[in-house]
Amino acid sequence: MLCLDDKFGIWPLIEYNGWRYFPLPSMVGDVGKRLQQMKDFNSRDDDVILASCYKAGTHWIHEITSMLLNQTTEYNTKHWTSLNLQLEWPEDYKFAEAMSEQRLLQSHLPFEFLPTAHINKGAKIIYVSRNPKDRDVSMYNFLHGKIGWPDMTWNEYFDKFVLNDDIYGGWFNHAKQYIDAIKHKKANICQVLYEDMWLDPIKHTTRLADFLEVPYDDTFIKEVVKKCSFHELKNKKIDITVTIHPEGKSTLFRKGNIHPEGKSTLFRKGNIHPEGKSTLFRKGNIHPEGKSTLFRKEGKSTLFRKGNIHPEGKSTLFRKGKLGDWKNWFTVSQNEQFDALYRKEMKNVDVNFVFEPSGPI
C-alpha cells in the first residue's frame, strides 16, 4: 500500500544510503532511525513475518497464510489490521503491541531490516519471491497511473528502474540477502516461489502448512487453494476500496471489481445502515464536515488523495496473475540487457526461477 496525497505522495522517492524508498509517513524524516526501529521491534515467539519485494505475490500468499493460521477458508477482512502489521507502514507500533492474538507481520524490506529479536529466537519467516521479469512488469503496472507517480512508458521505466535497481533495497539485493540467510541458516525461513505456488498450489500450500505447524487435511488444503486462486480472490474477496472511489469502482482488483455490477459489497444498501447510508464515511457521522477521519492527517488523507488510488479507479493490486507475461513487455534488446545483468548479479546464488510455462497451463 502507498500513501497518496499532496504532502506524502509517492514521488519523489526518498534517497538513503544508496537506495530509494517510497515516502510513507513513517519514512519521512529520519529514515535511518525508522529502519532501526524496525530492527528493534519487540517480536513475540508466535509472530510470523511475511517478507517479500513489492509485487512478488504478497497479497496472495498473505491470504493463504492467514487461512492456514486461523484454520478457516473465510477471507481475511481485517484490512486495517493487516496494514498496521506491515512493519514499515505505521508511524508507531502501538496497534501491533496492543494485539493479543497471533500476529502475521509483513515487510517489503531486505533481510537486514527484519526485527533482530525475531531472527534470534528462531521465529517463523515466510520469504516470497517471484521471477524478476514478471515482477518488474507487475511493478510498472502497479505504479503507472498512481497519483503523483511520473507518467512514463515501459521503455522509460525499464531504463530508470529495472536496470537501475534501487527501490526498497533493490530486487537483486533483496533476493540475495534472503537466499543467503536461508543457505547459511541465519533464520527460520520458508521460501515460497510465486511460480512454484502457481504451478502446484496443493503441494506448496501443504509445505507452507507444515512449516507453520498447523493442523490440516487434504480437504482443507484443497479448499484453501480453491478460495485463494487468482480468479476467486479477484471476484469474491471483499474489496473495501470500492467505497473510496466516487463511482464505486474497485481500486484493488482490476476488471470485475467484487460485485458484477461494480457495487460495493461492504456498504451496499441495507447491509450496514437500514437506509443504505455509510456508517463509516457519511456526512456528520465521524467528522462534523463529513470528512474522513480514518485516512487523514491534519485534515489531509495520507492514503487516498481525491478519493481514489488510480485516477480512473482501476485496480493496481490484482492485475493478471499470469506466468511469463514479461514476454509481452520486454523487447529483444531489453531481455538481453536484463539477462546479462541477472547473470552478473545472481552468479553463484542458489535459486532457480521459472520465467515462463514449459507447456499449456
From TrEMBL:
It is an enzyme of class 2 (transferase). Pfam families: Sulfotransfer_1 (PF00685). It comes from the Eukaryota. SUPFAM superfamilies: P-loop containing nucleoside triphosphate hydrolases. InterPro entries: P-loop_NTPase, Sulfotransferase_dom. Residues 45-257, 311-348 form the Sulfotransferase domain. Keywords: Transferase. Its EC number is 2.8.2.-. GO terms for molecular function: sulfotransferase activity. Belongs to the sulfotransferase 1 family. This is SULT6B1. It comes from Mytilus edulis (Blue mussel). The lineage of its organism: Eukaryota, Metazoa, Spiralia, Lophotrochozoa, Mollusca.
